[in-house]
Structures are given as structure tokens and as C-alpha cells.
Specification:
Helix content: 25-40%
Shape: globular
Radius of gyration: 21 Å
Structural class: alpha/beta
Distance between the termini: 47 Å
Number of strands: 12
CATH class: Alpha Beta
CATH superfamily: HUPs
Number of helices: 6
Largest sheet: 7 strands, parallel
Strand order of the largest sheet: 7-11-6-1-4-5-12
Strand content: 25-35%
Length: about 250
């Protein structure tokens, strides 16, 4: 069993969001970065569980600069056997998907894992794009995965119930809550991560189909107005005159 887990580096959920003066790039000054939680908690951990029960290899892959290697080493500490960093600035989902697919084409992976989305852009785009490049089936937002020989049985939550699918390997999937439980790297894993291979590969050529014109912050939220429970007339007036439906 050969498994690829694609991991992203994202700002910590408590980070203050701001952009440069032109509004074209995220301002990362003073921002703490972490591994995208959906990649870490669900995709990576489930991949490690499968390797532990079935044997094989888990490869963690990140598209990003050398500064991302601390995050990549955490993936190794959690349980990945080796890691790959594609040495490029991840400017767009299309660019990242192309880089992952070009690397994966020659590696014959049985499973390619993604978290359901990243917590910065929330696009849920990369997994589907990679599957298209590789001409593989893709299942998004999977909350359960079991393997029986060359067949994967997956579950995902849908409105009003649970959808169950059977798909032959190889396949790409994005992992959602329920796929696995978070693992905290132990000291042995942290020490072993220092000796596991982290290979750096150059990016494939790619012509960007889109360009970021500008980022803007949403308008500041208005303050809360408290209404005396005895003053229903005022509450009705506020709902009619000031309340906004979002």
C-alpha cells in the first residue's frame, strides 16, 4: 500500500488577517503557521492507520518554500515515512494541483489523500483538480474509509443521511471529520522525524490561468444592541428598520 498525503501550511486560526498595501498578498508578518488541521487530523492520521494495519509507505507532500519544512517535519513525527517538498510558492489551487499531479504520475500511489479544505481559502479545489490530472476517481468529504483488497468502501455525510460508495483503487479522496482522530506527536516520533528523508524537487512548468487582483476584508460587524425584554415595541421596530438578513 503506497499512500500520498498532501499537506498545506496555513495561518493559525487565531491569526489576525491583513494584506499588503496593494491588497494583493496576505501579510504574514508576525503570523504563526501550522499544518492545515483537516490534512493533519483526518487525512494524515488515517493514512498512517492504514499503513500500520496493511503495511506500505506514507509519503507527505507539500508545495511550498523551505520555511515550510518545520510543518513537514511534524507530518513525519506523526507517522509519515518520508516527505517531499516541491520547491515553489503555492500561488493558486491550479498551480498546486499541477505540481502534485506531476509528482504523483510516476509514483503509482494507491491512495492520494487531501483534507476536505484548507482553513485559509476554504476552496476544496485541489483534490478534484489532481484527480482530473491523474484521471482517477475522486470522492470528496469522506468521513470513513475501509479497504478490502483493491476495493475501498467510503462513507460521507449528505443531507438527511449517509452515502456509501465502493471504488476500486487507485483513487483520490478528501477527508472530513470522522475519518480519524487527532494524534499528538510523541518524543520518539519527533526524534525519528529528524532522520526520515525529506526530498526537495523542482516545480513543473505551469502557466497560471488566473490572477489575483485584490483581497479585501469584510466590513466590520456592528455592535450588539440589547433590548429590555419588557420593551417588545422597540424590538419589533429594530427588526423592521435595522435588522439585515445575511
Amino acid at each position: 500500500m503506497k499512500i500520498l498525503v498532501c499537506i498545506s501550511q496555513t495561518p493559525d486560526t487565531t491569526a489576525k488577517i491583513s494584506f499588503n498595501a496593494e491588497g494583493t498578498e496576505f501579510n504574514n508578518a508576525g503570523v504563526q503557521f501550522i499544518m492545515n488541521p483537516y490534512d493533519e487530523w483526518y487525512a494524515l492520521v488515517r493514512a498512517c492507520e492504514l499503513r500500520e494495519s496493511l503495511g506500505g509507505t506514507v509519503v507527505a507532500l507539500n508545495v511550498g518554500p523551505a520555511a515550510n519544512e518545520t510543518t513537514i517535519r511534524k507530518a513525519l513525527a506523526i507517522g509519515a515515512d518520508e516527505a517531499v517538498r516541491i520547491d515553489a510558492d503555492p500561488k493558486s489551487a491550479a498551480f498546486v494541483a499541477k505540481q502534485i499531479a506531476e509528482y504523483a504520475k510516476s509514483q503509482n500511489f494507491d491512495l492520494v489523500f487531501f483534507g476536505k479544505e484548507t482553513i485559509d481559502y476554504n476552496g476544496s479545489e485541489v483534490g478534484a483538480m489532481v484527480a482530473e490530472h491523474l484521471d482517477l476517481p475522486y470522492v470528496s468529504y469522506a468521513c470513513k474509509l475501509e479497504l478490502n483488497g483493491n476495493t475501498a468502501t467510503l462513507e460521507r455525510d449528505i443531507e438527511g443521511g449517509v452515502e456509501v460508495l465502493e471504488v476500486d483503487l487507485p483513487l483520490c479522496l478528501s477527508a472530513a471529520k470522522g475519518m480519524a482522530e487527532q494524534r499528538i506527536p510523541n518524543m520518539r516520533g519527533i526524534m525519528m522525524a529528524r532522520t526520515k528523508p525529506l526530498n526537495v524537487v523542482p516545480p513543473a512548468s505551469f502557466e497560471e490561468p488566473v490572477k489575483t487582483v485584490k483581497f479585501t476584508l469584510p466590513p466590520a460587524k456592528a455592535g450588539v444592541k440589547l433590548v429590555d425584554p419588557e420593551n417588545m415595541d422597540e424590538l419589533v421596530r429594530l427588526l423592521h428598520e435595522e435588522a439585515k438578513v445575511i
